[in-house]
Amino acid sequence: MQLGIITGGYGPERPGALLSGKHVREACISLGISTTLFDAAELDFRELEQIECAFLTTHGWYGEDGKLQGALDLLRIPYSGSGVAASAAAYFKPFANAIAESSGLRTPRSRLIDLRRGRLPEPRELFRTLGSQVFVKPAANGCSQGARILSSANDFYDWASSAANDELPLFVAAQFVPGKDISVGIIEIAGIPVALPLLETRHDEQFYSFDVKCGNSRRAYLCPAEISKSEEFSLKEMALSIYSSLGCRGFARVDFILNDTAPWFLEVNTLPGLSRHGNLAQMGYALNWDYEDLISRLIETIETSRKYRP
Fold first, then answer.
1. Dihedral sign (CA 110, 267, 93, 237)
2. What CA–CA distance (Å, rounded) separates 105 from 116?
3. DSSP of the chain
4. According to the model, what pLDDT value does residue 117 have?
5. Closest by alpha carbon to 172, among 96, 58, 258?
6. In whole angstroms, what is the distance from residue 94 CA to residue 80 CA?
7. Which residues of the chain have pLDDT under 50?
8. What is the pLDDT of residue 79?
9. Which of 231, 177, 173, 241 minimizes the C-alpha distance to 200?
10. Which residues are in the ATP-grasp domain (predicted)?
């Protein structure tokens, strides 16, 4: 099999994507799989004629939001991970939240703020509806980029002034829910989605921010997570439910906040980081898989039939 690894891409998540691509290619060399590495930011799609299928380690805009997946579908090239519809729905937070709620998952109260319209919600009403602390984040972006906690009207106006200059000034304002950061990895084995050991990420910030995610010294992984068996069972069931409801394929990571009241759904990442030190790798290590074993299992999830998928 001639495998094309498509990595890199655009935006602040590019370094992490490149690292994942580098590690995946090293694993493929160890596995004896012939690969070609492509940078999504410089991709000439005619070059893909030489490959049989694609393994994606792209994140963020154009790589994780369904656009690259759509291009590969048009070229009839099988690829790893979810298709166009699931990728787009998971990436756009309001869609993912709506599907999660329809599946019975608990989500923080939220509303969409479109700064392109020039109409801001009244801060007092926003805090009255969502709580004394409001968590704002881009409606379509990853890795907690641009996320902040607002605690006052002044915070809100300062944030709105700076956020209005973003390339896509479309945001979700949500009830801030403190608690444990728990991730559930899912891999399809023989076509059946299987939940991996749960991972808890500990850090010393108010929330799992972009700075924390990109600074290894400021976080610690616990896998398996230190939670009760009943909580573990519940989180795995919820993760598998939203994975199915979104129509995900191959593998994904589902993130939750767990506190004394209940698990709260945060998001589905259809192309989680795949470096040797990333979340999915940590979950594999808890099962005594080495990194090459994990990558081999992920490659096996690629559907090579070239049949239509939404």
1. negative
2. 30
3. -EEEEEE--SSTTHHHHHHHHHHHHHHHHHHT-EEEEEEGGG--GGGGGG-SEEEE---STTTTSSHHHHHHHHTT--BSS--HHHHHHHHSHHHHHHHHHHTT-----EEEEEGGGT-PPPHHHHHHHH-SSEEEEESS-STTTT-EEE-SHHHHHHHHHHHTTSSS-EEEEEE---SEEEEEEEEEETTEEEEPPPEEEEESSSS--HHHHT-GGGEEEESS-S--HHHHHHHHHHHHHHHHHHT--SEEEEEEEE-SS-EEEEEEESS---STTSHHHHHHHHTT--HHHHHHHHHHT---S-----
4. 73
5. 96
6. 25
7. none
8. 96
9. 231
10. 97-300
Pairing mode, if any, of strands 2-7 and 53-56? parallel
How many other CB atoms are found less than 10 A from the CB of residue 32?
6
Domains and CATH numbers, the chain: 3-80 (3.40.50.20), 88-106+178-301 (3.30.470.20), 110-175 (3.30.1490.20)
Compute how many other C-beta atoms are within 10 angstroms of the C-beta atom of residue 119.
8
Summarised one tens digit per residue, pLDDT across range 213-243 is 665 557 789 999 999 999 999 999 999 999 9
Q: Yes or no: say if 38 and 7 are a contact pair by the CB < 8 Å rule.
A: yes
Exposed/middle/buried for 165, CB within 10 Å: 0-12, 13-18, 19+?
exposed
